[in-house]
Amino acid sequence: MVLTKSKKVILALALALAATAIAATALLREQQALSEKLIRLHVVANSDSEADQAVKLRVRDAVLAVTEPLMEGAEDPYAALSDALPEIESAAVNCLAALGVADPVTVTLGQEAYPTRVYESFSLPAGQYTSLRVTIGAGEGRNWWCVVFPSLCFAATSSDLERAAATAGFSDGEVQLITEPDSYQLKFKAMEWVEQLRQWLLG
Predict the structure, then answer these.
(1) DSSP letter string over 56-99?
(2) I want to staple 165 with a disulfide (CB 3.0 to 4.6 A). Which of 66, 137, 156, 170 is the partner?
(3) Per the confidence metrics, is the pTM higher than 0.85?
(4) Signal sequence: where (predicted)?
């Protein structure tokens, strides 16, 4: 059978779309496998004012003072955090009260979409993650993101990161993925595009 020029173009486009779909599926699975081993922390300030941004960091510290020891040796990190939500919220409320701030605070644990984030010693691709979200007041200020499990918020050295990754059961490939952002910059961007496409398709 002889293909016309238009049919060749259609066939080429179909093959390209199929290859893109396969690659996108692989990237999504890779991100999902990583996300299943992580719990992110998302602290949202009341506003972008200098005072509210400073309060956000103080609340962050109060929350981490509860979560970090809680996560050490936790057999089920999600359940441990879920059970501790009242304690975490109380720590945030007490922190605000000590600062003389009357803003309310809301603490939730659920799924949340994250963009690609580059931290000091590692990076994480965009996607859906289990997220401990702390919203202060109106929640209209800049965010502060990190990883509450494994405890990577202040993983300053590669050995800190490796220990935390081992706690979460990361494979060597997953450790490489998050610790070599230069090598995986294009891959992370592709993951972000896939996540945006998924969100668009879901409406």
Answers:
(1) HHHHHHHHHHHHHHHHTT-SSHHHHHHHTHHHHHHHHHHHHHHT
(2) 170
(3) no
(4) 1-23
Quick check: 23 and 115 in contact, CB under 8 A? no
Is the separation of the CB atoms in 168 and 38 below 8 Å?
A: yes
Tell me how far apart the alpha carbons of residues 120 and 80 are, in angstroms, rounded to a whole number.
27
Q: Is 90 exposed, middle or buried (0-12, 13-18, 19+ CB in 10 A)?
A: middle
Q: How many Å separate Cα 148 from the centre of its chain? A: 10
* pLDDT digits 0-9 by tens, 9-21: 554 555 544 444 4
Q: How far is Cα 65 from Cα 68, in angstroms, rounded to an integer?
A: 6
Strand partners, 128: 113
Torsion of CA 133, 165, 113, 16, to 10 degrees: 180
Number of neighbouring beta carbons within 10 Å of residue 85:
13
HSE (CB half, 13 Å, CA atoms) of 203? 0
Q: How far does CA 203 lie from the centroid of its chain? A: 21
